[in-house]
Amino acid sequence: CNKGDQPQIALELLSGMQVQQILPDEVTYGAAISSCAKAEGNGWETALALLAEMQERRLSAGVMQIGAAISSCSGAESWPYALLLIEAMQRRGMEPSVIAYSSAMNSCVKGQASRQVFGLFDEMRRRRLEPGTYAYGAAIGACRVDGRPQAALALFHELRGSRVETDVQLYDAVLAALSTEQGWEQAVTMLGAMRHEAVTPGQAACGSAVSACGTGSP
Q1: Measured on CA atoms in the order 86, 128, 120, 79, is the torsion positive or negative?
Q2: Cα–Cα distance measured from residue 38 to residue 114, given in angstroms and rounded to the nearest whole number
Q3: pLDDT class for 10, splitting at 50, 70, 90?
Q4: How far apart are CA 5 and CA 9, in angstroms?
Q5: Distance (Å) of CA 117 to CA 78, 101, 159
Q6: Using one digit for the tens of pLDDT, what is the confidence trace for 153-195?
Q7: Which among 12, 55, 59, 108 could bridge 116 via Cys, Cβ 3.0 to 4.6 Å?
Q8: Burial of 53 (C-beta count, 10 Å sphere; 0-12/13-18/19+)
């Protein structure tokens, strides 16, 4: 079925269970909330409604349910809710996962809430969680939002020195951050490094490099 239809289908299935006097449990709600994370558009609203319904039924929302709700908050308008859910997990004595932190960071990048992105990134480190590619990509995206190409490059080099593998999307994020007057030379160098490592630049990467050259070259 269409991804945008998944939250509605989940609600209909839950409603059908209740009509048949089959009470949904935590696992059922977790699966329904997870379907919202895979949906396009306003799946996060349905996910939050399902969490509220769990509370009304005195069912305990755990790491699985809240983590899925955080993943559903992937749009620019939902980043405050992602942060609230991270805080809710911590108040309940739960440890947010790397995926939960990364999803919240990505949502904050889309909402241009770069300060919150860096706050979550630092919090992960304080909790001795190793940021993955997704978290580094979000932090580099926040550098782009703030117009800090050198900070983005520093994060990329930090990542290269860790056990985390790079991918095309991460290169795209760095090149997007370098598409400024101050970063055009590094953008050209980055393209050369991608070819040397047999990483094929995508359209976004090439577009960012061209944009960088246009702003920085004489």
Answers
A1: negative
A2: 24
A3: low
A4: 6
A5: 14, 9, 17
A6: 999 889 888 877 878 888 888 888 887 766 667 777 777 777 7
A7: 108
A8: middle
Q: Tokens in use for 64? A: 């699985």
| Token pair belonging to 154 | 């520093």
pLDDT in tens, 83-121: 999 999 999 999 999 999 999 999 999 999 999 999 999
Amino acid identity of 48? L
Whole-number Å distance between alpha carbons of 108 and 192: 31
Average pLDDT, the chain: 82
Q: Which amino acid is at 185?
A: E
Report pTM.
0.81
3-class secondary-structure state, position 25:
coil
Q: Which two tokens stand for residue 92?
A: 């309940």
CA distance 165 to 145: 24
Rounded Cα distance, 126 and 141, in Å? 21
Q: Are 26 and 62 in contact (CB under 8 A)?
A: yes
Q: Which two tokens stand for residue 151?
A: 């900070």
What residue has token string 């947010």? 96
H or E stretch at 93: none
- Tell me the torsion sign for CA atoms 37, 43, 59, 89: positive
| Distance of alpha carbon 32 from alpha carbon 160, whole angstroms | 37
Q: Is the pLDDT of residue 214 over 60?
A: no
Question: Cα–Cα distances in Å, from 211 out to 173, 175, 177, 200?
Answer: 14, 10, 11, 18
Alpha carbon 169 to its chain's center: 13
